[in-house]
Design a protein that fits this description.
The complex is a heterodimer of chains A (152) and B (185).
Chain A lengths: L7 H19 L4 H8 L7 H21 L19 H17 L3 H9 L6 H21 L11
Helix pairs in contact in A: 1-5, 5-6
Chain B lengths: L1 H13 L5 H21 L7 H7 L6 H4 L2 H26 L15 E5 L2 E5 L4 H17 L6 H8 L3 H23 L5
Antiparallel strand pairs in B: 1-2
Helix pairs in contact in B: 3-5, 7-8
């Protein structure tokens, strides 16, 4: 890897802080609140994900018109679209069962640990186990993909 | 007059905790994403951290492809955890108060060194089993609530819109079945 700009990691850290604070403030870091939404008992939760999508969507749309490249990486501001295939449906469905059962998704689980929810380590342990299982299986079942993964 | 009262009541029932804490939280989540994107051009998602971090301890090719991003992803996740802690130490502890925040009644609050912390009442087996499926599903499905839900929807990616519609629909069905089976919390 080329040397990163010295401000690269500090900036990512600040972004993470805002991200985690927001997940705490919104209560999306609380599994109960997610489950209550999925049971239609409190419909506020979509304001978190779609609110965040609107804010980032504005930046995604505007930045390419203002600058050509990001100052800390020199990378162009471009849409990085993930290709659609059956995996999006299969994986999305498996994620849906897990999210519906536990009420927690990855980012919210990290933030949940921060708000003091030690019990969420069960979910984090499960997530690593699940990620390992699919990676182990996929590393074996097909030749390593030469193409480097996108940054996201 | 009477109809508007009924309408107000219906809205209050659908949003028992209002919408401001959700909207403000979402704004901050979006702002965090934007800060990283402005500086680096990277639309950051949270679930890749699971695989990129496994590359430190496993030689599997599936994880090794993330070696280039694994360091900053650890930093991103550390920021998220500490952001949650910062929220706990300020708003959750009542040091900072705002009418935009609705504390709610879920879970259990406890105190450590003057900081009000929070813990879930959802049973560990649900968290563990659900976590395993989240770990498998987000990585096979190419993203989670942040990668697909925030960055993908924000860039109007059709793949992400389909991904979100899929996991949202299945999650609603799952939660309804689990509740119908009498599992609570």
């Amino acid at each position: 890897m080329a040397e990163r700009h010295p401000l690269f990691k500090p900036l990512v850290f600040v972004g993470g802080l805002l991200f985690g604070f927001g997940l705490g403030f919104s209560h999306m870091a609380r599994p109960e609140v997610v489950v209550n939404f999925l049971l239609f008992e409190d419909l506020g939760l979509p304001f978190v994900m779609f609110g965040a999508a609107i804010v980032s969507g504005i930046a995604f749309a505007l930045l390419p018109r203002i600058r050509d490249a990001a100052p800390l990486t020199g990378d162009p501001y471009e849409r990085r679209l993930k290709p659609f295939d059956r995996n999006v449906l299969v994986g999305g469905a498996v994620f849906g069962v897990g999210w519906g059962l536990s009420g927690i998704c990855p980012g919210a689980a990290y933030a949940s640990l921060g708000v003091g929810n030690v019990t969420i380590l069960w979910a984090l342990g499960g997530m690593f186990l699940g990620a390992y299982a699919q990676g182990y299986w996929r590393s074996r079942s097909r030749a390593p993909e030469a193409a480097a993964a996108g940054a996201d | 007059m009477a109809t508007s009262l009924v309408l107000l009541q219906a809205v209050a029932e659908l949003f028992p905790n209002g919408i401001s804490r959700y909207a403000v939280g979402g704004l901050l989540v979006g702002l965090g994403t934007v800060v990283i994107y402005v500086g680096t051009g990277i639309p950051a998602g949270a679930s890749t951290f699971l695989e990129s971090t496994l590359s430190y301890v496993s030689d599997q090719s599936r994880f090794q492809r993330y070696v280039g991003s694994r360091d900053w992803r650890v930093v991103f996740t550390a920021g998220i955890v500490l952001g949650g802690l910062a929220f706990a130490a300020t708003v959750q502890s009542g040091v900072v108060t705002t009418s935009l925040y609705e504390p709610g009644t879920t879970g259990t609050l406890y105190e450590v060194a003057g900081v009000t912390l929070w813990s879930t009442d959802v049973q560990p087996w649900r968290l563990f089993l659900g976590g395993i499926l989240v770990g498998i599903g987000t990585r096979i499905g190419k993203g989670c609530t942040s990668g697909h839900g925030v960055c993908g929807v924000g860039s109007a990616s059709k793949t992400s819109l389909v991904g979100v519609a899929t996991f949202l629909t299945v999650a609603i069905g799952t939660a309804q079945v689990v509740a119908a089976l009498g599992v609570s919390p």
